[in-house]
Design brief:
DNA polymerase, domain 1; two-stranded antiparallel ribbon; 13% strand
Length: 223
């Protein structure tokens, strides 16, 4: 089997490796309802790819919420932890792709805007710990996506050049972060981002993660 020269695949988590967006949308609406407000799909889509800290700060400002940002963050985070780790599911084709990469000795990292505690809980729930040699989370960086710091940190830790890696993302912020780090990137299409055009420098977009496998086998990148 002839594989592409990709040495490592760097995955985003929410909306990419994990089909968490329906769950997170429910948490977002419930959070605002707790303060007497109603959310919208448009606003939720705008917040996609940001950290929970950023979400709490943005919603506090927009809706003039009384608690301070830290208390709002704690409230939001507790809701996410309760719902996410119970109801979120792998993205279609995700387990198959992870297994393929592992069997073919292609390294993997998780590069996510989520907190480390949540990322570890997700890996534990799905039994994915052994797949990932590195986690880069919101706890590990000072500048978040769309800044390239999360991806640059992953490259540095793994001893890789950008062209030796492949990033997989769904949000505009995530795609921008990978592209600014000069990493080839594939977009995962989901209901939140389906209306957004593929960035000019991205390789392609896919609806199932295991659709990547034939391209990795043949070395036909971009897709």
């Amino acid at each position: 089997m002839q594989l592409s020269p990709v040495k490592a695949v760097l995955f985003d988590m929410d909306g990419t490796l994990v089909n968490s967006l329906p769950v997170l949308y429910g948490v977002y609406r419930e959070f605002l309802a707790d303060f007497g407000h109603e959310g919208s799909e448009a606003e939720f889509g705008e917040l996609s790819g940001t950290t929970l800290s950023q979400v709490a700060a943005i919603l506090k400002m927009r809706y003039s919420l009384e608690p301070d940002v830290q208390n709002l963050l704690n409230h939001y985070h507790n809701k996410v932890m309760t719902c996410y780790t119970t109801y979120a599911l792998p993205t279609e084709g995700g387990p198959e792709l992870l297994r393929f990469l592992s069997e073919n000795n292609i390294r993997m990292a998780l590069v996510t805007s989520a907190f480390k505690r949540l990322a570890l809980d997700v890996l534990d729930r799905f039994g994915w710990h052994d797949y990932f040699e590195l986690l880069v989370t919101a706890d590990d960086v000072t500048r978040y996506k769309p800044h390239p710091e999360p991806y640059l940190r992953a490259l540095n830790a793994m001893g890789l050049q950008p062209q030796e890696a492949l990033a997989v993302e769904d949000s505009l912020d995530g795609l921008a972060a990978a592209l600014t780090a000069e990493i080839p990137v594939i977009k995962v299409v989901n209901p939140t981002n389906a209306h957004q055009p593929l960035p000019a420098d991205a390789l392609c977009d896919l609806t199932r993660l295991d659709d990547m496998i034939p391209h990795l086998q043949s070395g036909m990148l971009p897709c």
